[in-house]
Amino acid sequence: MTNHRRNTTRHALYELFSSMRFAIGLLTILAIASIIGTVLKQNEPYPNYAFEFGQFWFQAFEQLGLFDVYHSAWFLTILAFLVLSLTLCVLRNGPGFVKQMRSYRDKAGESSLAAMSHSQALAVANAAPEPLAAYLQAQGYRLRLRDNPDGSLLIAAKKGSAGKLGYFFAHIALIVICVGGLMDGNLPLKLGQLIGRVTPETRDIPQSQVPAASRLSASNLSFRGTTRIVENKSADVTFIDSGNGYLVQELPFIVTLKKFHVDYYSSGMPKLFASDIVVTDKASGKRTEATVKVNHPLIVDGIAIYQSSFGDGGSPLRFKAWNLADTAVAPVPLQGVSMANQPLRANGKDYALEFGELRVFNIENVGKPGAADPTLLQRMHDAREVKQTKELKNFGPSISFKLRDSLGQAVEYLHYMAPIQQDGASYLMAGLRRTPAEPFQYLRLPLDDEMGIDRFMRLHAALRNPALYDEVARRATRKAMAGGVIDQQLAQNFGDSVKGVLQRFADGGFAGLEKFLDERVPADKRQAVAQTYIKILQGAVVDVMAVADEKAHASPLAADAQHYRFLLDGLVASSGLHDYNAPVFLQLDGFDQVQSSGLQMTRSPGKNLVYLGSILLVLGIVLMFYVREFRLWIRINGKQLRVAMTSNRHNRDLDRDFQRHLDAIQQLTRGS
């Protein structure tokens, strides 16, 4: 009884796995999964998914393996079951197909032939089989003659039997494609992760310190990883993203980047980027030199090396460091390296300076507001601008960095190196933001006649130096009296007002003045007093600049509209420095660009199987849909002759072919 039950269960499983419905169900699930894998960008860093979908859906999608569909355990399991199902289907139905292809069905009797839809009996005087057989062979038929016990002769002919091979090719093609998918899906690696033999590394540590449990040997069946190599540097590993961490994949060779090349379109998009590399085999020492371009990979030892990206590789940087606590002091030189960290001590406090990526090109559309960073455009353009023209402009090199204090609090900055022109004036742009989610807020420092910020820094220092206020007030009062704005009685009050406005501006910029007015001035008089303060400040700034220049033994500023605009812009910039929240201002003075190349290393042995399966699938479809099987019987029984014909597809062509063959046979039998 036990054996019978076991045999019954085995037979039921065999019937299930070898059924067409089971295979179609698996194919449907794979098709849906493929749609998800196409719509949802795969293999992105997990923080990107968490930010986009939120924590709830991120966890749900992570559990379902939707962030790496084609390498997920359930996807590979379905592929394995589909291979099993299709293999059993071929083994189960294959012998019957082969038998049908080889069979001529030469045992058909009169009744079965007469029952066919295309069948007709002819009365003939005498029908010789030789001319009929010759005619069928000339029409491309293969035939077999059979003498029946009742004395009749049957000519069984067929052609197009190869069309049934299409079913074999289609099923085998799917098997081959799925096997290729299993190979490239790296099933052994998934099993290793399942049993805990392989665990992704989540720490940001040098690859040489990554433990063995997070390293894969060079004999790994399949992998797809990325490697970032700096010019004149080498790498012998690639990194594979794996959930919240990564795996280090050993390579059988060493890749050295000799030179990276990049060309740009006028829009700022890369036109061409390529890497001159040298690949050195670890075992033999064989060197292979090549230039890797996009869509032009180098294949070494079955591993394809693709050009995938590029970026900054750690460029030496040169800065002028302005002490914002005393900008009258000359700046000191500061050296740095992009993509690196270094300590910074300023005004008795310790900071960590964390440099980001150096960008040599910053192409923005300055013709259409909203096409680039809106905050930058609002600073650079009138908010009422509505022209829809497209004007691309290169804003030049920029460097981003974070300044982190001893408590771990950091502010991110973005400084441009080249002057930016607006309405005939030149500015140096500097942006800051306190969280990555915020847009950059930009500070615009006016440049002097020598295209530097030295005079502005001198003005900024003077505006914040109370020791100069008495001299500034005297000069402002003298000019006001000379112009008839005030008399002798108001001179003292006017001078005090000048010093008061300068002090409040030094304490908080325009925001400080506004706060003072809100606290001390009634609301109905606030606007009038504010206008008076602004006029005092705009007039006094000329004297502030003159006093600062005299103290620095610098040539005085020319008294014209252009330079007065410089002073007004200086007031705006000096006010903005109150929100800059940094002890120093790092002016990018120069750099030596060092580029890095992002190379993708791919070993995909299943790729060739997928190509082979695709060819077999196309061949199978062609055979199934374009090769028709015809079977024709001629039964000769004395003075009666019956012609019957069938095909795997019944259409008008079959009706026409049957009539054509019937007419030809009548001619042949009439002639005999």
From TrEMBL:
Transmembrane segments: 21-40, 73-91, 165-183, 609-627
Coiled coil: none
Keyword Repressor on entry: no
Major location (coarse): membrane
Localization in the cell: Membrane
Topology class, membrane: Multi-pass membrane protein
Domain ResB-like: from-to ranges: 20-659
Keywords: Cytochrome c-type biogenesis, Membrane, Transmembrane, Transmembrane helix
GO biological process, one term: cytochrome complex assembly
Domain of life: Bacteria
GO cellular component, one term: membrane
Pfam families: ResB
PANTHER family: CYTOCHROME C BIOGENESIS PROTEIN CCS1, CHLOROPLASTIC (PTHR31566:SF0)
Protein name: Cytochrome C biogenesis protein
Species assigned in the record: Chromobacterium sphagni
